[in-house]
Amino acid sequence: MKSTFMKIGVMLISILWLGVGAEAFAKSPPVAMLTQVKGKIEYSKDGQKWKKIRRNKFLFEGYTVRTGDDGSAKLVNQITNMSRDVGPNTEFKISSKGGELVSGILSKPMQASGDLVASLNKRFAKAQRYTTVRRSVNKKKKLKLNTIKEVTLSAAHPDLVWEGMGSDIAYRLTIDGTSYDVPAVNGSMVRFSVPTLSSGDHEYTVELVKDGETVYSPKKSHIIKWMDGNHLAAFNQGLASVKSAAPGDDFLLANYLEEKGMTVAAMDMYRKYFTENADDIDMYPMLIKSYHDLKLKDMKKAEAVKYNQMLEEDG
Question: How far apart are CA 43 and CA 238, in angstroms?
Answer without folding.
Answer: 31
